[in-house]
From TrEMBL:
One of its GO terms (molecular function) is RNA NAD-cap (NMN-forming) hydrolase activity. Keywords: Hydrolase, Magnesium, Manganese, Metal-binding, NAD, Zinc. One of its GO terms (cellular component) is cytosol. It catalyses: a 5'-end NAD(+)-phospho-ribonucleoside in mRNA + H2O = a 5'-end phospho-adenosine-phospho-ribonucleoside in mRNA + beta-nicotinamide D-ribonucleotide + 2 H(+). GO terms for biological process: NAD+ catabolic process; NADP+ catabolic process. It comes from Escherichia coli. This is NAD(+) diphosphatase. PANTHER family: NAD-CAPPED RNA HYDROLASE NUDT12, NUDIX HYDROLASE, NUDC SUBFAMILY.
Length: 155
């Protein structure tokens, strides 16, 4: 079978004889950070709807997922994290990436936001949270998992 619509740098799908171009995008990371009975939540500049969520970013070339988490957290919030734990992953359709979710514990530092990335970031006690991402999102799962850990320890 011969491809009927060949594309540069593409591959031929033998089942339908059409050339398919694949795009490789860097993976994304997302992380919930806990400090005692609180979680770090931020309002991102790209979402000005009052929703507060966990920190996220892209993995750079030559960087491990763990290094990306540490770098993104430091760049966006000015804090250091420790005890990083993998939680889950999910396909991320835009920009065609894989989102890898982690939980971490606060290590040190004061919150100093990157105003290009965040409108604000603060520690929120597990029983006094702002508006959150919708259920079913990986961000919401991380927040709910962190809240459950806090409840188990502080109630």
């Amino acid at each position: 079978m011969k491809c009927i619509r060949a594309k540069p740098n593409g591959r031929c799908c033998a089942a339908i004889a059409v050339s398919v171009t694949t795009r490789k995008s860097p993976p994304c990371i997302i992380v919930a950070i806990r400090r005692d009975d609180s979680i770090l939540l931020a309002q991102h500049t790209r979402h000005r709807n009052g929703v507060h969520t966990v920190l996220a970013g892209f993995v750079e070339v030559g960087e491990t997922l763990e290094q990306a988490v540490a770098r993104e957290v430091m760049e966006e919030s000015g804090i250091k994290v420790k005890n990083l734990r993998y939680v889950t992953s999910q396909p991320w359709p835009f920009p065609q990436s894989l989102m890898t979710a982690f939980m971490a514990e606060y290590d040190s530092g004061d919150i100093v936001i990157d105003p290009k990335e965040l409108l604000e970031a603060n520690w929120y006690r597990y029983d006094d949270l702002p508006l959150l991402p919708p259920p079913g999102t990986v961000a919401r799962r991380l927040i709910e998992d962190t809240v459950a850990m806090c409840r188990a320890e502080y109630e």
